[in-house]
Amino acid sequence: MLAKTSLAAVLLIGLCVAGAPAQDLEILHVQNNVYAIFGAGGNVTVQVGPEGPVIVDSGSAGRSQDIMDAVATLSDRPIRGIVNTHVHADHVDGNEIISTAAGFASGGTTGAGRRDATIYAHENLLLRMSGAVGDDEPAPVGMWPGNTYFNDVKELFVNGEAIQILHTPRAHTDGDSIVFFRRSDVIAAGGVYSNTGFPVIDVPRGGTVDGLIAALNTILDIVIPAPTQERGTMVVPGHGRIADEHDVLEYRDMLVIVRDRVQAMIDRGMTLAEIRDANPTFEYDSRYGSDTGFWTTADFVEAVHASLVQDP
Questions:
Q1: Number of structural domains the chain divides into
Q2: How crowded is residue 131: how many other Cβ atoms within 10 Å of its Cβ?
Q3: Per-residue pLDDT at 125
Q4: DSSP class of 111
Q5: Residue 1 in domain
Q6: Does position 230 have pLDDT exceeding 90, yes or no?
Q7: How many Cβ atoms are within 10 Å of 69's Cβ, its own excluded?
Q8: CA dihedral of 188, 189, 195, 201, whole degrees rounded to 10
Q9: Residue 270 belongs to what domain range?
């Protein structure tokens, strides 16, 4: 599972680059006025409109200019706001550069005389980023969100569209948010849904398997499929391809099945080593599993076990 190290040392969870445009980024139109940028760390969701783009997550270190260049192909307005979905570096490392350079394309101002774009996040993200909670070294102050919320939802109205930022407690981390663009009917899922592998449950930073299942259920409560059961409400994952209701439903069901198997083994007194040997993920390994890299199948099983043991 993820070690308690500096936030800058949190490695990338995975990339989805389905093409080779300039700077290795791909821009896809999701629907209405929402787009997604792939290949700069975590997926970046972009809402455009006359008040200026709002982006969800800011990508990895070293890719900030590439992200700003990509956003500039969608809008000639300065970036108005950044929503952080969780604290991992591949989703927040661009905060400082993008927020302070947000008005580059139109003279260095985001309007009303302000230079910086506003960074929004749940307060738990700020507590961990600032080092007030946990064992991580504090991130640079310029990366910190300036507008936090502490209850279940924060509501914005930007570019003629209602935006709901929803806290999903103790899921991927303890500071997760999903972002729902209501008129466009698009959800930016952040770390609670990444379809490139087994779910990452960051137990040291407050993640739990039950919280992650609850977060996926929150997404399923919102999404409505089109009459053909394809499309409808679209979901931009933290990593991986754009999804719809059926994709999220399959992923949720997989996680519930694995959670229940591990819990049953714990109830029988099996050790973590015995649970790993029993291979509770067997029918999903070909689709989501990995024996190498940042997040292996064994890491996933260990995280499920750890979160169930600490929260029986």
A1: 1
A2: 14
A3: 97
A4: B
A5: no
A6: no
A7: 14
A8: 150
A9: 7-310
pTM score: 0.88
Tokens of 16: 């989805």
Residue pLDDT, tens place only, 190-214: 999 999 999 999 999 999 999 999 9
Q: Which residue has the tokens 């969780």?
A: 86
The sign of the CA dihedral 203, 149, 115, 59 is positive
One-letter amino acid identity for 263?
Q
Specify the pLDDT at position 113.
37
In DSSP notation, 145-181 reads -SEEE-SSEEEEEETTEEEEEEE-TTSSSSS-EEEEE
Let me know if residue 223 belongs to a domain: yes
CB neighbour list of residue 113: distance below 8 Å, 6 or more residues apart:
none
- Supply the CATH number for residue 200's domain: 3.60.15.10
Indicate whether 69 belongs to any domain. yes
Inside any domain, residue 2:
no
Structure tokens at 154: 């924060």
Judge contact between 124 and 46, C-beta under 8 A.
Answer: no
